[in-house]
Write a structure and sequence with these properties.
Strand content: 5-15%
CATH class of the largest domain: Mainly Alpha
CATH topology of the largest domain: MetI-like fold
Number of domains: 3
Structural class: alpha+beta
Strand order of the largest sheet: 2-3-9-6-7
Number of helices: 15
Shape: elongated
Distance between the termini: 36 Å
Oligomer: single chain
Radius of gyration: 37 Å
CATH architecture of the largest domain: Orthogonal Bundle
């Protein structure tokens, strides 16, 4: 027994000696490691170190670069309204974009484990990462286009809206001048005199869009009917000219579906809708002696959707395009972490009666916390430098509302009012914002190594 121990001790001594020898070899050749690292260090200094030092020094001088102004550029940075807007938008970006992307990535990663085509779904979600920011910006500039015939977002929005709300039959139409119809407020038109049974009313309109007349029949003059107030609404326009104003010519089109209201004392006492030939009839007992009104709903402009790239929504819209790109990145990293979660813990919780929501909230998410932090911190660093999407997607009318620090840096340094001193100050400030996030990330990496 003692021989084994001695032998073991000797073995330990031999191992210790061998280890010391290896340590001396490493120490003796540190200069060789330095030689190999020198090109990388020189390149790092040229591409990273020198620009940082130069930016710090340049931020202390004026626009010309000759006059020393100290910290005045930093003071001007916080007094400028555009830069304050950029700073506020950066805060929104840092809070919203990484959080939403990480949350969606977590949901996708967990759900794709339960579906048959999970791998294909992950591929589709991750595919936007293969697209450059420039290409993604061009895509979403088209997606958010105001015109529903070009912008996908508004095409869907208008389709949903028109499903639940009837569009105006003749948007933009108006009465022919001096035809007896007067504007009565809110876009409606009312006859200048009261109508009588036995005297058909003529309601000539113009400025009707050709698309609204597809399939329209020729207008027919209404005839007097006992106990009815009758009339006709039509497009008083003859192609090629030659038609008579305020008179129904042979091929002039009827305006079907137009709402007509009889108004007496400010109240609607009767209403009707024009037929396929443009004619209408109202009960004389109510409409006789009243005035006819064409409500504004007949002529309201077609719903054109939401102004996604207007000043109010431009930042959320651009964040949406960023999430579209980076949710796949978050999903892949989280799915890799999810693959390392012990399945026996999940099964044990289910056996003990825990529901899927409880398993997700109390077991899956805590076990994935290190991965979630990695994804969140990485995306926070990424959005602090966001530039491409904002520069491409935001139109000129909304660029100030969508401004971020990286874009402001570009505009201050290379825009119309070139001030490299102010641009350098913004660059230094942006670096200071990134440093705390990088420090947290480095500390987390060191803790992981110690484990």
């Amino acid at each position: 027994m003692s021989d084994v121990q001695v032998s073991g001790a000797g073995g330990r001594r031999r191992r210790s000696a061998g280890g010391g020898g290896r340590g001396r070899v490493r120490g003796g050749r540190r200069w060789l490691a330095g030689v190999f690292l020198l090109p990388a260090l020189v390149l790092l200094g040229a591409l990273v170190g020198y620009p940082i030092v130069f930016s710090v020094v340049r931020s202390l001088f004026d626009a010309s670069g000759d006059g020393f102004v100290g910290l005045d550029n930093y003071g001007a940075m916080f007094s400028d309204e555009g830069i304050r807007t950029a700073l506020r938008n950066n805060v929104i970006w840092v809070v919203v974009a990484p959080t939403v992307s990480t949350a969606l990535g977590l949901v996708f990663a967990v759900l794709t484990e339960r579906i048959r085509w999970g791998t294909a779904f992950k591929l589709v979600v991750f595919m936007p990462m293969a697209i450059s920011m420039l290409a993604a910006g061009i895509i979403f500039r088209l997606v958010y286009d105001q015109a529903p015939e070009r912008g996908v977002a508004n095409a869907v929005w208008v389709g949903v809206h028109d499903t639940f709300a009837d569009p105006a039959p003749f948007p933009g139409a108006k009465p022919r001048p001096r035809a007896g119809l007067e504007a009565s407020g809110g876009g409606s038109f009312t006859t200048g005199s009261a109508v009588r049974a036995g005297s058909p009313v003529l309601l000539p309109l113009v400025a009707v869009q050709p698309d609204d007349l597809r399939g329209a029949r020729a207008a027919a003059a209404a005839r007097p009917r006992p106990g009815k107030v009758t009339g006709t609404a039509w497009l008083d326009f003859t192609r090629g000219g030659g038609g008579r104003p305020k008179a129904i010519d042979g091929d002039e089109k009827a305006l079907a579906g137009l709402r007509i209201e009889a108004v007496r004392g400010g109240r609607v006492v009767a209403s009707a809708t024009t037929a396929a030939d443009g004619s209408f009839a109202l009960p004389a007992g109510r409409a006789d002696g009243a005035r006819l009104r064409l409500p504004a709903a007949n002529f309201a402009e077609a719903y054109r959707g939401v102004d996604w790239l207007g000043p109010a929504l431009v930042t959320p819209a651009i964040i949406g395009s960023y999430v579209w790109m980076w949710a796949g990145f978050a999903m892949v990293l989280i799915a890799a972490g999810l693959a390392g979660v012990p399945r026996e813990l999940l099964e044990a919780a289910r056996v003990d009666g825990a529901g899927e929501w409880q398993v997700f909230r109390r077991i899956t998410v805590p076990l994935l916390a290190p991965v979630l932090v990695v994804v969140l911190v990485t995306l926070m660093i990424n959005v602090l430098k966001i530039f491409d999407l904002v520069y491409i997607i935001a139109p000129g009318s909304s660029i100030r509302s969508a401004n971020v620090l990286a874009l402001q840096l570009f505009q201050s340094s290379f825009g119309t009012d070139v001030d490299e001193g102010l641009g350098s100050a913004i660059a230094v400030f942006l670096l200071l914002l990134v440093l705390p996030v990088m420090y947290v990330n480095l500390r987390r990496l060191r803790k992981e190594r110690r484990r």
